[in-house]
């Protein structure tokens, strides 16, 4: 746990340094994920999660919401389970800036136990989330509820995250 916290802090500081030279918003989030599949849950009650997301382009603006395409890289896992999804996401945000949602798909890199040890595989991955912005401004904070899914259902999980946008 101490190593994960140290790595998270270093990565966050690095991302903040990159963000200062770039007007494109970068999102950093950290939280917990809870396995959906019973056999996974019997082995690990929760996973630790960390993720980054970067806006690629604005897509559409309407009276109700703005939307954009964003690229995300997440990691969650514990013990013999790991999932690293790299996803292209469609993100919508209410005009007043209070709430947001996203759906995305891409490729996930997975480590999971087998009868003879562990296997590392790549499978299609997807996510859906809803969030609430807590603050706005140069460094905005938010809470988010996510569902991560994969062709390899052993790593499917619901997550609760706290994050910052800068």
Describe this structure in words.
With 166 residues, this protein is α+β, with helices and mostly antiparallel strands. The protein is 15% helix and 64% strand. It has an eight-stranded antiparallel beta barrel with strand order 1-2-3-4-5-6-7-8. The protein is elongated. About 4% of the residues have low confidence.
Brief summary:
15% of the residues lie in helices and 64% in strands. By secondary structure, it is α+β, with helices and mostly antiparallel strands. An eight-stranded antiparallel barrel has the order 1-2-3-4-5-6-7-8.
Please report the distance between the alpha carbons of the first and last residues. Answer: 26 Å
Strand element count: 8
- One letter per element, helices H and strands E, the order comes to HEHEEEEEEE
Strand line-up across the major sheet: 1-2-3-4-5-6-7-8
Question: Structural class of the secondary elements?
Answer: alpha+beta
Please outline the major beta sheet: 8 strands, antiparallel, barrel
Contiguous helical run count? 2
Q: What is the arithmetic mean of pLDDT?
A: 88
Low-pLDDT parts are 16-21
Which of globular, elongated, flat, extended, rod-shaped describes the shape? elongated
Relative strand content: over 45%
Report the helical percentage. Answer: 10-25%
Roughly how many Å is the radius of gyration? 16 Å
């Amino acid at each position: 746990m101490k190593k994960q916290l140290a790595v998270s802090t270093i990565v966050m500081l690095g991302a903040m340094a990159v963000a200062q030279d770039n007007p494109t918003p970068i999102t950093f989030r950290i939280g917990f994920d809870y396995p959906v599949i019973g056999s996974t849950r019997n082995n690990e009650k929760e996973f630790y999660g960390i993720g980054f997301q970067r806006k690629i382009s604005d897509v559409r603006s309407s009276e109700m919401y703005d939307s954009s395409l964003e690229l995300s890289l997440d990691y969650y896992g514990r013990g013999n389970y790991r999932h690293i999804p790299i996803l292209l996401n469609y993100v919508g945000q209410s005009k007043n800036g209070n709430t947001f949602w996203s759906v995305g798909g891409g490729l996930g890199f997975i480590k999971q136990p087998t009868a003879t040890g562990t296997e590392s595989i790549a499978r299609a991955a997807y996510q859906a989330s809803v969030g609430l912005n807590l603050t706005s401004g140069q460094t905005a904070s938010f809470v988010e509820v996510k569902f991560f899914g994969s062709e390899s259902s052993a790593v499917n999980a619901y997550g609760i995250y706290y994050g910052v946008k800068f």
